[in-house]
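Collaborator request log, item 7. Partner lab (contact: R.S.) asked for a structural prediction of Ornithine cyclodeaminase to inform their binding assays.
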Amino acid sequence: MTRYIDVNDVSKLIQEVGITRVLTSMASYVEQDYRRWHTFDKTARVASHSPDGVIELMPTSDAKHYSFKYVNGHPKNTKADLLTVMAFGVLADVDTGYPLLLSEMTLTTAIRTAATSVLFARFLARKDARSMALIGNGAQSEFQAIAFHEVLGIKEVRLFDVDEEATEKLMRNLAPFRQLRVVRCDSTADAARGADIVTTVTADKTNATILTPDMIEAGMHINAVGGDCPGKTELHADVLRRSRVVVEYEPQTRIEGEIQQLPVDFPVTEFHRIVSGEEKGRESAEQVTVFDSVGFALEDFSALRYLYAVSRERNIGTELDLIPAPHDPKDLYGMAIGSLHGERAAAAVEAAQAQTPVLIRH
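Returned to partner:
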């Protein structure tokens, strides 16, 4: 049987476990998998681009499990009251190929993206970081703000979005977090001024320059989330040139990330080298660090592993007859008509024969 988890199940999980614990647990799963980086089959995601968006498949596997995620990115969708990003995913058993889990991944991707951002920031941001600018206040923003507040100890978030209603929505949703100071700003520059961390999570599929060199201060950590496909960036190239840039999987980020603006020999560091201790995350308090986030299949693998474990533990979700289970695995046809008996079975055969073309030999 395949376990199925829908949107309501994930919502129930968040309500039962608590958003902070879910974020922390998912970040732990992601860290565990980055620590065994070399056990995974890795490939850049397969993308199908159109003028208004992109549809992608993100596969990976280790010796035990295989996973993939189907995900889109269509910034204009909100004009039709549709989500910009939606996704679903599968976790399967490598030995048999049988799917263990079929899950929604829209809510889950928002959580795993925020969890990954916090994980990278733990290694890259200054330990005394307490303020964060949040540029782009759409569907991802609450998860990012809550993750950095609850997991990393951020005390102040400074908000800006060209859509004022998005900022108002974010402020309403953050109101219950009374220990978090929320500041509404008039511009990106205003929001970034004095911030220890700057998170950019905008949606437009353009080569934008949300952050420019004059906004960057010594010691900042930049969590660049929104630039995640060819032709879509958020940082001025000179911001990257003055920073230490850390990526998930370099071959994919060269195509989709902020570094698509720069020559292929521009130096970057893959995160697994930092989490394993091969390299330091930050070399000095004054260094500017950038997480060039595009989302990698390993993180979805981790998220699906977490969902599968916690859903079984809490009995959340539904068991599906997704795969046939014939008495004789070589007799799939017998299973297809196995519920028909006697006259009904004979009638079914006659009906099939009546529709079979007759060969006429000349």
